[in-house]
Design a protein that fits this description.
The complex is a heterodimer of chains A (114) and B (107). Chain A has no helices and ten strands. Chain A is mainly beta and 114 residues long. Chain A has a six-stranded mixed beta sheet with strand order 2-10-9-4-5-6, with no helix packed on it. Chain A has a four-stranded antiparallel beta sheet with strand order 1-3-8-7, with no helix packed on it. Chain B is an all-beta fold. Chain B is built from no helices and eleven strands. In chain B, the strands form two sheets. In chain B, strands 2, 4, 5, 6, 9, 10 and 11 form a seven-stranded mixed beta sheet that branches. In chain B, strands 1-3-8-7 form a four-stranded antiparallel beta sheet, with no helix packed on it. Classes of the chains: A mainly beta (114), B mainly beta (107).
Amino acid sequence: QIQLVQSGPELKKPGESVKISCKASGYTFTDYAMHWVKQAPGKGLKWMGWINTYTGKPTYADDFKGRFVFSLEASASTANLQISNLKNEDTATYFCARNYFDYWGQGVMVTVSS
Amino acid sequence: DIQMTQSPSFLSASVGDRVTINCKASQNINRYLNWYQQKLGEAPKLLIYNANSLQTGIPSRFSGSGSGTDFTLTISSLQPEDVATYFCLQHNSWPYTFGAGTKLELK
């Protein structure tokens, strides 16, 4: 069955970096793009952008240009999200979602606190 | 950006009730509208895609309708397991945007 399994929760200090992963199984990884979605505590969902899993080309929504990097380990059917220079407002759950948003990972809670 | 206005924000209904949730887009999104159910601490689950297509495995009491700017999710007969937050997603054009969500509780 199709699954997206994300890495575990992270606790970081402001200014640090974090890398979270999303491992896909049950389908051909390169056939579907991967999207990233942010859900801050008590807030709605926000689309961060997507990565073409065939070419590796990322596309970022305007609010996520600069400190956010989407990458792939295609041989491991894994998509990654790296956030650098973490800020308090990055505290959120981050989801990966397969193209067409039909399957989602379970989410990774990232907490940024001094 | 396309704004998705979802209503109501909160809904209380009884088992067996017919429930409707609405999403209005700020511009035409054709039928590129998905509906999701999210329970606390879980990933969103796709219920309806492209406005009115039922995702495989989803009970037939869920249905979607609409096109252009106005969309509706209907639960024909509310069940206890339907308590959750529901939200819509427009995937017509970047940046993709979500409705703010409807929290559905049992009366």
